[in-house]
Amino acid sequence: MDWRIKGTIQKVLGWVPGGDRLHHVLQRRLGGLADFARECDIKVDDWRLMMGHLKNARARTDGGTLLEMGTGWYPTFPLCLYLAGAGRVHTVDLNRLLRREMTIALADRLANHVPLIAEVSGKPEAEVAARQKTAAEALRGGASITEATDGVIDYRAPADASRTELPASSVDVLFSNSVLEHVPREVIEACFREAMRILRPGAIVFHSVNCGDHYAYFDRSIDQLHYLQYSEAAWAKWNNAFLYQNRLRAIDLTAMAKNQGFAIEIDTSRANPERLRQLESIRVDPHFAHYSRDQLAITSIDFIGRKPSS
């Protein structure tokens, strides 16, 4: 599909009553959620990668308190963390998107990933399998996500990640996956300030961010750097309620975290040779003139920032 057609459809759906429901139906039938099992498997692998980073950072997950920014339509990371032994998982979203039927499908699908979750968490496979089975059965029986996980998962929406109302110094890990690229700069800064407040001394933030043009996933005629050609005014025409993209580069995200006092311990951002070649074929708008070629060509980053211990 031509990216402009998709952008126009999403723009219209963002305006009309009931557009959010219709957008969800289109995603399930024609979009990224059409192959739900595949999408679940990809998200579980993202969780595996996050857990590897958290382990390297000596973050507390077993019995710990975690906060997810941006729950979405189904709670992959919270459910995996529950099966892995987390003590409490708060998950917040600006809009109440969580779908019961997708949450049930996810819980069932996680039966295929029990060995992986057990390996990553160090828990006995039988224990993880029992938790998965019990949670899935409870969800199918009408239980909420909180009830099905013995109170471990706390879903809040609508909720503001920049004003969580959680107690100060009460969280061990704050994380997000493919969320920050859809959040305005000033809101990200406010969320980092709130993270500094609610994290315990020495605790961490982990964010995995896709800094490329998301329209490229639907239109193969463009690439991940396509949107760098547009001015802010021109790009505003294509930004919409369902696919807002802030076009921030990886260095902006780590700089904002540093400005709030976080020490960056892990930063996976690297300029991909293919992206550097693609950069040569486009005229980058002057809005991005202050970035180096490498900074423009980076389209993904995982980073960990640590709150000072004292």
- What global shape is seen? globular
User: Secondary-structure element order, as H and E?
Assistant: HHHEHEHHHHEEHEHHEHHE
The share of residues in helices is 40-55%
The pLDDT mean sits at 93
Low-confidence stretches: none
Helix/strand/pairing category: alpha/beta
Biggest β-sheet: strands ordered side by side in the sheet: 3-2-1-4-5-7-6
Q: Estimate what percentage of residues fall within beta strands.
A: 5-15%
Count of distinct strands: 7
What is the radius of gyration computed over CA atoms, rounded to a whole number of angstroms?
Answer: 20 Å
Write a compact overview of the structure shown.
The protein is α/β, with parallel strands linked by helices and 310 residues long.
SSE map:
Layout: H1 3-15, H2 19-29, H3 36-56, E1 65-69, H4 76-83, E2 88-92, H5 100-109, H6 114-121, H7 125-140, H8 145-148, E3 153-156, E4 171-177, H9 185-198, E5 199-210, H10 232-236, H11 250-259, E6 263-267, H12 273-279, H13 293-297, E7 300-306
Parallel strand pairs: 1-2, 1-4, 2-3, 4-5
Antiparallel strand pairs: 5-7, 6-7
Helix pairs in contact: 1-2, 3-5, 5-7, 6-7
